[in-house]
Amino acid sequence: MLRTTLAGLRLHKSRYVTTVLAILLGVMFVSGTLVFADTLKASYEKSVMGSATSVDAIAVPEAEEGEDEDGFPLEPVPFTDSVLNEIRALPEVAGADGLVRGEAVLLDAEGRAFGFTPPAAIAFGETSRFSANEGELPSADDEIALATSTADQTGFEVGDTVTVLDPEQEKREFTVTGLVDFGVDPSYSFGGAVVFAPDTVQGMTGASGYSEIDVRAAEGSTDEDAAEAVAAVTGTEVQTGAAFGEEMATSAGAQTEVLRVALLLFGVIAMFVAGIVIYNTFAILIAQRQRELALLRCVGAKRGQVFRSVLGESFVVGLVASALGVLAGVGVGAAGARFGGQLMGSDVTASVVVSPTAVIVGLLVGTLMTVFSALVPATRATRVAPLAALRTSATASGLEKGTGWVRVVFGLLAFAASAGLVALSQGMGPDPNGLFVVTGAALIAFVGVVVLGPLLVRGIVRVVGVPLRRVGVPSMLAVDNSTRSPRRAATAMIALTVGATLITGYSVISTSFESTLTKQLDEQFPVDYQISAQYAPEGQNAAAPEEGVDGAEDGAEGAVEGEGPEDAARAAQEGDPVEGAVEGPVEETGPEEGVSEDAVEEESTEALVPQEVQEKLSESPLLEKVMAQRSTFIEDDSDPTAMGLPVMAYYGAEIGVDIKGETVEGDLADLESGKVVVTQTYAEGRSVGDTFTVPAPSGDLDLEIAAIAEDGAAFWGAVVTSEDFSAAFPEIRDSQFLHLRAADGADAAQVREAVYAAVDEYPMVQVMSVAEMKNQFSEMMNIAFYSIAAMLGLAIIIAVFGISNTMALSVLERTRESALLRALGLGKGQLRRMLSVEAVLLCLIGAGIGISLGVLFGWAAGAAVLPGLVFSVPVAQIAVFIAIAVLAGLLAAVLPARRAAGTSITGALASE
Fold first, then answer.
1. Angle at CA 891, nearest 5°, toward 890 and 892?
2. Mean pLDDT of all residues in 345-352
């Protein structure tokens, strides 16, 4: 039996070509993912270990247990010069230097502050785990080095001149002397970093002390000896360079593991689709070879021998295909590490890592999936009666048993259960657990499609076949052939259905999320620009203009002439602009009676937009509205466990008209002086009309609740009128955000120029175009969609191989039938067209069912996790999917149609 099995494989190896390709692609993805992740992880470890092991011990200050006055964990206290000198005097230490760390504002090429937060500003000595990857480290007070990530984002290179703001916000120019690769160190990889000379860093950041001390061990002392000696001085845990690097590499490798798992999910999908193709291939082959198997039974082969023979075939096919897949996976993984690492912001420096796990897992997954998929066909092979050898027909009649009532009932119950779970997910409200419920519903619905597949194929073909029958004889024959073997057709199209469902579902989610965000921005913040200040390092504030700017010394004094706080507040309430100011009140700079100086000091360190910027923008005729958002955060000192209350107000804006949001109760437009809008979390069971108290330094405000808003992006906490906010918090004069709306008909370029001119003197003030933000989000969603679609595309390719394989085996089975049609006058071109239409029908059915399921469950998944989802159907993308399905059908029919058309008529008729 073994010789017979191997001889059959050699004789009919062409039947397994597409099956081998399907297995190969699936295994290639799995092994390639493992090679890619292992190589990326090894590169991280090499980068981290290379820098950490350049020193022998690393000391980092530890924070004391406890919390500060704001309830946050205490910050570590930097090491002092005396500690560093003691470490240098140790006999186990050959050299030691400290790393000083602060923050500094780096200006980009346009003169604006780089990043949402300032990059880290550091300086270190000769003994350090960092070094220049390009150029040299700074040594003079006008030299600077940049992190490689910062240089990539800003476009600066070695030799360029850059501008950095000192603590007084004076501009200082530096020459870039080198670039430092900080690798995956989270302390510097997030916001970037700049490196100053040791004598310059304190003047540029105000930082003192050392946030890290790096040590070289003396000759004759081990790394552990040096670490223990340093620990005795610092009183903290001190790690060797190797231990420090291993800990950081483990942390950095966590993201690689997440990526590995995510990619392996797509590999599982690909192998699942390949399993469907394998099952269909062996099912058809066993049905076609029933005479051969029956003849074996007649000459003495037992059922067990036939069963093992079929499984032996699947084992050989799976092992060969898996081996080829592993080889291809190594190449794909190496290419992925080479280019994918750069996309993730990390250059791959390690050699390609091909671990035994990648090879063994690839071989096992491919081989076991092939054998498992062949179990049912192998069992079916043992049921062929020996007398079947006397039959003259070689058709796969075993696949075409009728669709019984049990199958129909089971399929309908599966659809009903799926519909019930979808309804349950929508009734749960926005809840991440609803996503798991939707996933379960989709799996059950897919089971229903598998069970009712033959009925679906037959019904859809009958409907679609009506116009096709009128096109010509080839189309009419193709329709008849599609309904003649509905179970085989259903099994083949299921593989395509899986890929189409996943791609369409994600496409619906992506498009709906984008539409929802756009609607929220348009409705809640119908503006063109948003202005905010970069988070300021301690001691700096965006509200301070550059030195030499008029009014820098005077602050906002004289911003309002002849208007007191009460008049200004009244003008803001009535919507009338105040001369020389934004559409809102301008109060005195000093605190009112009852407000402590500490409160004013606390507010002055926040990242705020200067009042002068508001004034300039409000004077521009190109802007229809300048809406200022001011806010504060009130904590209950008497109860540390109580939840703090955010209080905000919008100056120059009408709540419910200019600033919108969803409400649980009441109407936003009812907000007026003496009333408040409270978000649902802070309402705590109160209703519209109840009293809500807002604590304030000048006296608590007892306000009537005008509306209760949903917790969301528009509001959070309590929203009061500008009049009430100014009365309660007169010391808050600057705004967190400015929302700008251009005047109707204003030229977009002129508006942009006016906005940037207003902030030109304040480099830490950042301008964000809402249109640009939408485009960035859209680009981000598109990149994610095309990346996922590309990976799911592998499942589509495997499914197309499956359909091509089904067509090829069908053509082989219908050799005499095709020859008879040719003898009756059907031309070669017509025969090719018949098979092409048949394949396209199969692909369209699979894609159509997949698109329908994808739209349904894409909507359900989005609605389950995102409140107020704007359901959007990506018509253009679905049209592309349909076009791809047609193209896939045509490609799948190319080789089978060519073989059928090239077969000799007389030879085929005389073959049996």
1. 90
2. 59
What does the pLDDT look like over 450-473, one tens digit per residue? 888 888 888 888 888 888 888 888
Q: Are the CB atoms for 803 and 842 separated by under 8 Å? A: yes
Helical H segments across 89-222, by residue range: 148-154, 186-189, 201-205
What is the three-state SS of 606-619? CCCECHHHHHHHHC
Name the residue type at position 262.
A
Taking the C-alpha atoms of residue 239 and residue 231, their distance in angstroms, rounded to an integer, is: 9
CB atoms within 10 A of CB 190: 13
| Sequence-separated (6 or more) residues with CB below 8 Å from residue 653 | 625, 627, 659, 739
Q: What are phi and psi of 328, to 5 degrees?
A: -65, -35
Which residue's entry shows tokens 């309830």? 71
Neighbours of 619 (CB within 10 A): 15
pLDDT at 807: 76
- Give the CA count within 13 Å in the CB-facing half-sphere of 221: 21
Q: How far apart are CA 345 and CA 347, in angstroms?
A: 7
Distance CA 692, CA 704 (A): 6
Contact 544, 552 (CB under 8 A): yes
pLDDT in tens, 715-774: 788 888 888 888 888 888 888 888 888 888 888 888 888 888 888 887 878 787 777 777
Query: 245 in helix, strand or coil?
Result: helix
**CA-to-CA distance for 603 and 528, rounded, in angstroms?**
28
Q: Name, in order, each residue with C-beta under 8 angstroms of 884's C-beta and a sequence gap of 6 or more.
A: 796, 847
Phi/psi-derived region of residue 559, left when phi > 0, alpha when psi is between -120 and 50, beta in every other case: alpha
Question: Are the beta carbons of 364 and 323 closer than 8 angstroms?
Answer: no
Q: How far apart are CA 183 and CA 346, in angstroms?
A: 7
Amino acid, res. 575 = G
Sign of CA dihedral 879, 880, 885, 889: positive
Q: Is 594 exposed, middle or buried (0-12, 13-18, 19+ CB in 10 A)?
A: exposed
Cα separation, 54 vs 127, whole angstroms: 9
Q: Is 900 helix (H, G, I), strand (E, B) or coil?
A: helix
Provide the 10 A C-beta neighbour count for residue 128: 21
Residue bearing tokens 């070879």: 289
> Cα separation of 342 and 464, whole Å?
48
pLDDT at 583: 38
Count of alpha carbons within 13 angstroms of residue 549, beta-carbon side: 19
Contacts of 709 (CB under 8 A, 6+ apart): 661, 662, 663, 664, 668, 677, 678, 679, 680, 715, 719
- CA gap 857, 509 in Å, rounded: 9
Residues 6+ apart with CB under 8 A from 741: 526, 527, 528, 623, 624, 625, 627, 658
In terms of pTM, does the model score above 0.90? Answer: no
Report in angstroms the alpha-carbon separations of 253 from 39, 248, 405: 11, 8, 54
pLDDT digits 0-9 by tens, 535-551: 655 545 554 555 444 43
Quick one: pLDDT at residue 506? 85
The encoded tokens of residue 863 equal 């609605």
Residues 6+ apart with CB under 8 A from 894: none
* Interval 237-277: pLDDT, tens: 899 988 887 777 776 655 666 667 777 777 788 788 878 77
CB atoms within 10 A of CB 139: 11
Q: How far apart are CA 122 and CA 115, in angstroms?
A: 17
Q: What are phi and psi of 344, to 5 degrees?
A: -90, 5
Kindly tell me the burial class for residue 272, based on how many C-beta atoms sit within 10 Å of its own C-beta (0-12, 13-18, 19 or more): middle
How far is the CA of 822 from the CAs of 394, 442, 819, in angstroms? 20, 45, 5
10 Å CB burial of residue 569 (0-12, 13-18, 19+) is buried
Strand partners, 675: 704
Closest CA to 803 of 378, 430, 498, 410: 498
